[in-house]
Amino acid sequence: MSEWVLPDGVLRDAPSYTPRPAELADLELLLSGAYAPLTGFLAEDDVASVLRRGALVDGTAWPVPVTLAVPAEVAERLDPGHAMRRLLILTDPEGAPVAAVEATELSEVRGGWFRVAGPVRRVGAPEHGAFRSLRLDPAETRELLPEGRILGVIATRPLHRPQLAQIGNAARTIGAHLLIFVPVAGPTPEGLAPEVLVRTVLAARERLPSATVVAVPLASRGDEVRDGLLRARVAANYGATHLLSTGVAVGGGIRIVVPRDLAYDNRDGQWRPMDDIPPRRRRTAMSQGEIDDLLDRGSPLPEWHTPPAVAEELRRARPPRHNRGLVLLFTGLSGAGKSTIARGVGDALAESGERTVTTLDGDVVRRMLSAGLGFSAEDRDRNIRRIGFVAAEVARHGGIALCAPIAPYARTRAEVRAMVRAVGGDFVLVHVATPLEVCEERDRKGLYAKARAGQVPAFTGVTDPYEVPTDADLTLDTSKLTVDEAVDTVLDHLVAGGWLDAID
Q1: Which residues are annotated as a binding site?
Q2: Lowest-pLDDT range, 78-87, 277-286, 470-479?
Q3: Does 335 map to a domain?
Q4: CA 431 to CA 477: how far, in whole Å?
Q5: What is the pLDDT of residue 225?
Q6: Which domain does 178 fall in, by range?
Q7: What is the 3-state secondary structure (H, E, C) of 41-56?
Q8: pTM
Q9: Of 295, 318, 341, which residue sits at a domain end?
Q10: In contact, 141 and 236? CB cutoff 8 Å
Q11: Residue 436, CA distances (Å) to 114, 256, 432, 445 in order
Q12: 188 and 291 inside one domain
């Protein structure tokens, strides 16, 4: 899609908005033509039709709604009925304009959020970051492909020998050139960063028949059937005639090739159809859990299962736990003992010198990182996200971050967990579950008394809720444990998990 030169003053006067990651991925696919015949975000009647019967209102088959939602403060500046107030500028996370959507419809979808429908046009050159040379659009890709059959492969995970054997077998069977799509819209199901996934695929490339590799911002919507149908449409737009898939996809001018079940033959070291190998000579593919366990312990991946070049990329991305970045988030009521335990753990690690440690205490962060924020739900979330961002950066570089905010909301704690995992770090949620009455008895800052007197608005446990974690990795109650016992419990957990050697 060619770049649109906007009229004078539009970039200055029109509202702008940075879509969320999944919406940015959809936007790029719309602009590149990968979502053809779509040219913009869907209107309400098309959304309803897609959800009901898998087709747009005009009967065109389409598997998933492609939508854009904006907050009320952006929506209130748009007017689909006004020629000069219908343009919305969409920006990348750095604030650079990427596209303009001409709002033809505006509808409220939930409290404070509105769906914007309308065609999109590119207004700025895309900045793709790593592996730009692989971020080809469908037209550029089709120019590179040879005549004849093209077998599309969606590489959502690293390619080990079982997958390489399946892909090679399928390509040779139908006499096809390979077109490998590497999704780069977010972490893999195992938590690998997109650039790591690309490196693992490139590391395996020499073990495949002739192949073209492209990086595509395909994001999973959590529905296997709809995801499969959407991938088939995208693959066809890129030029694939066939798609390797265990699912069933129809339409889009593409045929499905189902991979064969293969096993490793101990006699000659080849991957063959499973039924052709006697059970006594057969090895099946390792589970993801087995692979993760070997990487966590620093043990080599067996060469019969994983090519050395792929294993090396995985080892670099997922070092042994005793070298891997780690974030411990201590959550609990004010006065529960979070900061005291975190300091004790930090002191023990500092004494051992085994790991680099950064402590992000709730009160200190409020002064140094989140000054000016209040205690509304929005500001509490913003504070925790800031802590999560800094902690994730610590983990990215192999350090341990000890975080001790109240963190009352489950959704925000989950966001921090995702931030950390997205950079290859590990996350441990410690619920300091000291009862409210005990916390209130301690009340050395007098905060509970002020809250009961109405002097502190939105105080967690009194006038604001605390959402008890259902996903805590460790639970401590300092009404039943001394501080030293609680610290030892955390350290024992880190030793048992492989993040630390035993501390004397």
Answers
A1: 332-339
A2: 78-87
A3: yes
A4: 8
A5: 84
A6: 131-318
A7: ECCHHHHHHHHHHCEC
A8: 0.85
A9: 318
A10: no
A11: 39, 58, 11, 15
A12: yes
